[in-house]
Structures are given as C-alpha cells and as structure tokens.
Write a structure and sequence with these properties.
With about 325 residues, the protein is α+β, with helices and mostly antiparallel strands. The protein has five helices and 25 strands. Helix content is about 20%, strand content about 50%.
Length: about 325
Amino acid sequence: MLNPYKTAILPMVEKIRSHTIRFLIFMIVIGGCGLLFWPSAASVETEMIIPVIGDRVPPGMSVPTAQLDPVELRIRGLKSAIDAFRRLKPQYRLDLSGVTVGINSVPMLQSGVILPRGISIVAIKPSILTIQVERKISKNLPVVLDYQGQPLYRFVIAHIRLQPERITLQGPERLMADLDQIRTKPLILDDVAESFKTEVALDLPDEIEIAAPADTILVDITLEPKITQKNLAALTVQAINNPHSISIEPASIQITVQGPVSVLEAINPDRDIRVYLDLEGMQPGIYVRRAIIALPVQTTLVGASPELFTVTLSEEKEG
C-alpha cells in the first residue's frame, strides 16, 4: 500500500531541485558574460611612468630638477580603477628631508605615491635614486630691462624706470656665483608713439627662484620728441626799414636748424622762416651786417653760411 506522505512530498522535492539546478546554471552563464563584457571588473597588472617631484628639501639646499628622472611603477588593481588613476596624472613625491650637500642615495618608497583604494604597487624602478645636492645661496641683484625694437622714428626713449629696481633671488651656488644682474623678458617697442606703463616678467634661469619682493616688474617708459637737424638752402635775405636803393651780397643764405622731427618735417621756409637785415637809420654807404634769422617755435639755429653780408645803400628811392 502506497504511503500518502511520500506520494505528496516527493514530486514537490524534485520540482524544487530542478528549479535550483536551472537557477545555478543561469547564474554561471550570467557570471561568464560579466567577465566577457566587463573586463574592468577583473584585476590586472600594468606599468606606468610618472614624474618625480622633490619634496621637503632642507633649507639652504637645492636639488636640480634635471636629476629627478621619471620612475616606472608596476601596479595591480581593477582596470577601471587603474584607468581612473591614470587620468589623475599622479606624481611621485620624493622625500628629501634627510639629504646633505653632496651625493645622496635616496630609496624610492611606496609612500611617495598616493594610491586610490583597490590599487597596489608591485614594484618601483629604480628602487634607489642617486642625486647631487647643492648649496643654495641668495643674492640681491639689479633688474635690467630687455627690450626689442625702437619707438616711432619721431620719438626717443628719454627714461626707463623699473619698480622694483633690485630683486632678491636664490638658487644653486653653481648658477648664482657669476650672476651680477637679472634681465626681464623682452619688451617689444616697435613703433610706440607715447609714454606708457606695463608689467613684464623676469627671465629667470632654471632652478633660480624669486625670494623677494615680486615676480613681475613694473616698467615706466617715457618718450620724448626726437631732436634732429635740417639744412635749408637758398633762403632770400630781405631788408626792412630801408628808404634807399640797396644791394645785398650775397643775396641768399644757407642755415642749419635743430628741433623735433615732427616740427622740422612741417617747416615751410617761405612761410615759417624769415631772414632779414634791419637798416633803420642807416645812411647811404657800404656796410657789413649780420642777418637776423627768425625761426619757428621749438627750433634753434645751429649754423648759418655766410654769417656776414655786404650791404650797399645808394641815394633815397624816388617817390
């Protein structure tokens, strides 16, 4: 006789077992697909090159940056974490707190790199970095403006004022020893036509830094009109206050005048310059006289040829 309990329970157990097996197979398939389509979920090992930054350098010492070559890291972690780590552009901060002047061998410790969770360092190459540490000195040096080009041809540079005029620099003794001034970055002056102020940066050699007071220089440039000379020939010598017949020898003069370029360029000799002899009160006869030369404002007489004129006065002119 069949047991009614077994008849009712056994089919139910078999059904549950069948569902469980199908569920486990499904989960295995899903897990395999995850590994196939999401490789970032798997742990990988790779290499990357990162720059080295000197950190905690003792006061009064200098470490040339050229000696701090990049290091090679071999790291392990999830691919997604490693990709994110690369995007952060990590640096290795080399602890130099224990170095002295001279040659030093500094171990490359894993603590020099800040790692995100899920990434570990397998190896660092090189494991030791050899560096030459130099003494750092300071100097207070005059600042010299480096400029290129010239103002517009009608102007000249009258004054150049720099603020500050001196600046304190510090750097390796090797570079600072022969340094007696510091120049600015080039300032372009091509065709400027008015005074102006501007800021310009210092042209600092590598490994030299500013200690005080500023990293930019205020430049105050004052322009003035360019002074030049101009020759004017064959200017007629006239006579004023003369009631007599007159003969002047020679009849013309050549002069050289000095003044701003813009003024000399605009001179019209017939309109702006007057050369004359004042004969007021003179009786008939022969005289030697110096001409009076009237010039435009802002100009001066440099020379005249001839300087003296022979004046012959005859009887009074007929009315």
